[in-house]
Design brief:
single chain, 624 residues, alpha/beta, five-stranded mixed beta barrel, iron-sulfur
Length: 624
């Protein structure tokens, strides 16, 4: 079926039509009823006639934080129209699958889920990068699909699909509004897309086919969104895109301008923190000092994800990455020098076509030298339609061997060593899957697990690190240190002045060992390549999906319940705009032995009391 475009009148999308975020009348969506196959003897069951907006929708998301944000926007619109959103597929009236096209495993998982949906005779809508980048995929035949820039039309697509129609909305020239209704997976975390697409042309990347060329939101629209979510009680803002560093190059601005404008709107009491998303080396090289200044700000996590992909310049050239290993080193060295407690994460692809043993050895040496606390290791997956898919492949056994070797080298590091006894400020936003620990992060985004009541979600506190493991650190919240509040807003100039003062204070009193993060610690320690590897970060991961899930099974965080619509979120909470002290009540476990001894003691005491009572009655009974 041909793509069905929006019908907005002579002016088209660029001129006329409904403003972004407004729901267009159903008459503007062209649909095509599914044809009955002559090979089918019986007529397939027709969907039950029900009032639109009363059904239950199962939403499943694959891929990056940008995809997660898209799912939250789609869920928000559906919920605002009356649909119920569920995590249980069995009882849902329709399935909405938001897909990822980066690697083969994620697309294979999508295919499996589509088959399950068809076998269950459920209406299905597929969204995300797979239908956008592979519109003619066989698995998508006869299924409604919605493109990555059409998420503001999801209600119409769902309605028509429930009626038994097949709808395809893929092409668009404008970005979806940032002010659409939104149901956050975690009500304390706002994922904010600052742009779509990128300026690169990596030979292995399929995402460019889906997300397209760079398209940036204006600074005013992004700052407006930040103001809104801060007022709603959001405690972490994640800036997300395919390449954060490229932001603004299509609209005459740049990333430092955006970051400075956003930081000016963050509460000065540090109740809301900003996390900068992934950036490739080429587009931040000219802004390193400005980026470092933002990363030093008290309300910004001192953390950045900078993919290197390979330690060999020859492989980087084949990948068309547009930078050298030396330029990656410059990014890491400069940020670690200028930002106390700086944390760097990176990505590695093992077995890219043409990678020799010598090329791989250079990658291993780079990882050993810097010992970065977070390295995402993956095997090369040829994606259909990309130049790399046509290149001569490295034997699969060699690819697997290299992946295992690099993973072994990475896991030999001890990034958490030396943290015991230190006191760190942490921001608590999630609950661990064990149902016991809360998950907090230091200013360097080091994950800290603490035992504390759920009332501490959305707060910050000082925590003393009590023990360390390979994949996480554990701490105890210091009583009386938990504060939730929003100080009065200040002007940009006042914030800039305060930021300079804070930087001076950091130079005198902030820092932890080996690139560790701090809010206010002992002394400054600039991060050398060796130091960068000795500091923890978020849980380390490898490219082996099964191994990654096994290692982090106890660290994967349960979603915070109570996700709300943007219009009904925690803006009404009495905590916002007030300062509150939270008394920490730890969950202490009682051993089985203690319980048994208590039961025995009570039983013995009751027995003795009964014997005494009976003896007294017998002695007082008159004899005849």
């Amino acid at each position: 079926m041909e793509d069905i475009e929006d019908v907005l009148g002579p002016a088209g999308l660029a001129g006329g039509g409904a403003p972004p975020g407004l729901r267009l009348p159903l008459s503007t969506v062209a649909v095509k009823p599914k044809r009955r196959s002559s090979r089918v003897a019986q007529t397939p069951p027709q969907p039950e006639a029900r009032i639109p907006g009363t059904q239950t929708i199962y939403v499943k998301t694959f891929g990056c934080s940008h995809n997660q944000s898209d799912s939250e926007y789609m869920s928000g619109q559906l919920s605002a129209f009356g649909y119920a959103i569920t995590d249980e597929p069995e009882g849902a009236d329709l399935w909405l699958i938001n897909t990822c096209t980066v690697k083969n495993p994620s697309q294979s998982a999508m295919t499996t889920l589509i088959s399950k949906c068809k076998n269950a005779n459920k209406p299905l809508v597929v969204a995300g990068c797979v239908p956008q980048g592979s519109q003619s995929l066989k698995e998508l035949e006869g299924i409604s699909i919605i493109g990555v820039q059409q998420i503001d039309r999801v209600v119409e697509v769902v309605e028509e699909t429930l009626k038994g129609h097949e709808v395809r909305l893929l092409s668009r020239k404008t970005l979806p509004s940032l002010d659409l209704p939104k149901v956050r997976k975690n009500k304390f975390i706002e994922i904010l897309p600052i742009n779509v697409g990128c300026l690169g042309a990596c030979t292995y990347c399929k995402t460019k086919h889906a997300r397209g060329h760079l398209g940036s939101y204006t600074i005013d629209s992004l700052v407006g969104r930040v103001k809104t979510v801060v007022s709603e009680g959001v405690r972490e803002i994640w800036l997300s895109s395919e390449d954060t560093g490229a932001y603004g190059r299509d609209i005459g601005t740049n990333l430092p301008n955006l970051l400075n404008a956003i930081v000016a709107e963050l509460p000065v009491d540090r109740s809301t923190m900003l996390r900068i998303g992934m950036t490739n080396p080429p587009f931040i090289l000219e802004h390193l000092k400005e980026i470092a200044a933002v990363l030093r700000h008290p309300c910004v996590y001192s953390f950045l994800h900078v993919p290197v992909q390979s330690g060999s310049d020859a492989v980087l050239t084949a990948m068309n990455r547009e930078y050298t290993v030396g330029e990656f080193r410059k990014v890491v060295d400069t940020l670690c020098e200028l930002v106390p407690g700086m944390q760097i994460a990176t990505d590695i692809i093992c077995g890219f076509p043409g990678e020799t043993d010598e090329d791989f050895a250079e990658t291993v040496n780079l990882v050993r030298e810097y010992q970065l606390p977070q390295v995402h290791i993956s095997q090369f997956y040829p994606r259909p339609g990309t130049p790399a898919a046509r290149m001569k492949k490295v034997p699969s056994n060699d690819v697997k061997k290299r992946s295992r070797e690099l993973t072994s080298v990475f896991e030999s590091f001890s990034p958490y060593q030396g943290m015991e006894g230190k006191v760190e400020r942490i921001w608590i936003t999630e609950i661990a899957t064990d149902g016991v620990h809360l998950v907090g992060h230091t200013k360097g985004y080091i994950q800290v697990l603490v035992i504390a009541p759920d009332s501490m979600l959305g707060t910050s506190a000082d925590a003393k690190i009590t023990s360390v493991g390979r994949w996480s650190v554990f701490g105890e919240v210091i009583e009386g240190s938990v504060v939730v509040g929003e100080a009065p807003k200040q002007t940009s100039s006042e914030l800039q002045k305060e930021q300079k003062q804070n930087q001076v204070e950091e130079a005198g009193c902030c820092g932890t060992d080996s690139c560790g993060t701090c809010a206010c610690s002992d002394a400054v320690q600039h991060c050398s390549p060796e130091q960068c590897g000795n500091t923890p970060d978020a849980p380390q991961t490898s490219g082996d999906v099964d191994r990654q899930e096994a290692i982090q099974s106890t660290l994967v965080r349960r979603n915070v319940e109570g996700s709300t619509k943007a219009s009904e979120s925690i803006a009404a909470s009495p905590l916002v705009g007030k300062e509150q002290q939270v008394n920490v009540v730890t969950r202490r476990g009682v051993s089985v032995d203690t319980i048994l001894w208590c039961v025995l003691a009570v039983s013995f005491a009751v027995t003795v009391a009964l014997l005494v009572l009976l003896t007294g009655k017998i002695s007082s009974t008159p004899s005849y």
